[in-house]
Amino acid sequence: MSHEDARAAAERAARASYGRLVALLAAPTGDVALAEDALSAAFEAALDSWPRGGVPANPDAWLLTVARNRQRDHWKSAATRSSVELDEEGAGAVTVLDEVDPDRIPDRRLELLFVCAHPALDPAVRTPLMLQAVLGIDAARIAAAFAMPAATMAQRLVRAKRRIRDARLRFAVPTRAELPERPPAVLEAIYGCFAIDRGLPTPDWSTSLTGEAAFLAVTLATLLGTEPEAWALAALITLSSARLRPPGAAYLPLDRQDPREWDARLIAEGERYLRRASGTEAPGRFQLEAAIQAVHCDRARTGLTDWPALVLLHRALVATAPSLGAHVALAAALGGADDPAAGLRELDALPATAVACFQPYWATRAHLLAATGHPAEARAAADRAIELSGDEAVQVFLREFADGLGSRAAGTAP
């Protein structure tokens, strides 16, 4: 087997199983940092061993075995022998290692998510910690999503993992008395995983961050039973996933996509989840966002976009969760409903410092300026959106949009 094939197999295992393996490794002692180090060493060993001996039949079990052995070596070292105390479950996990089948072990990522949502941890670091420890997103990427220097984020994550280890926070689904205070943070982390990955092309939905977020959202909703926001998040991610862009495909804004190319199975699944989330008098943020996605997906059935419904839902979202993204999305909906001037007023009300580096703001502003007959200003806004975009396909689309502004005053929404 070539080194390239072995690396590809290791990357697939990392995408599909990183969080589950970290959770299994960290559960006995609560040492998340040691679990991550041991798993990293296991992947290094795989890149050395698999080209020579081939990829094992169960790569996850192979990685878990090697990582557990690294942990065991650490625990047996003179420096740590007297400081580590394994509980019965942890000790058993070490001794039965060779027979472990990760596919048969109950998913422990939710346990780790609940650990990361523990009240003993700083609320500001809970979501970033879940994104890294459970979902395998690197600190630099998380820092960028939180508009924070990578070094600062890395320090916060190290301190949080140390806190989990030193306080010996329990790896378990919380009791009914403990449960109400933790799901919001867990839902935010799962949503953060989805948001970081949203819109990017993916070779395999099931092993993408979006697919991982969908799996965790459904698992959490099932665990909680009747929590509307949990089912709504599952609906939101699933409905959005129905329109994922395949690798190599050109970027197209939602109103230019062909609904016949969307995944009808995922749309039906997402609509089922949304029905389970309905019935509350005051819908929460995820219920509103899922309803917005459902309206867009309904174009696959009707061939039309219900813009008045979208404006109404976006206004409700701004009232419920007035984030920067919610305001920009409302402006775009107003433009879609043939009121681009109102959309511009919505954008103009946002603080200049807040939107300076927010790419969706500039892309939406470019469209609305073009639609109101200001091509020069629209071109400047499109150029700024191009600078801020990290997606080459989006950059290509925006350049074509900007180049067309010389001969027309209005255009398609970026």
Automatic annotation (TrEMBL):
Where does the record place the RNA polymerase sigma-70 region domain? 18-79
GO biological process per UniProt: DNA-templated transcription initiation
InterPro entries cross-referenced by the UniProt entry: DUF6596 (IPR046531), RNA_pol_sigma70_r2 (IPR007627), RNA_pol_sigma_r2 (IPR013325), RNA_pol_sigma_r3/r4-like (IPR013324)
Mention one GO molecular function.
DNA-binding transcription factor activity
Domain DUF6596 positions: 182-277
Q: What is this protein called?
A: RNA polymerase subunit sigma-70
User: Which species?
Assistant: Galbitalea soli
Q: What is the lineage of its organism?
A: Bacteria, Bacillati, Actinomycetota, Actinomycetes, Micrococcales
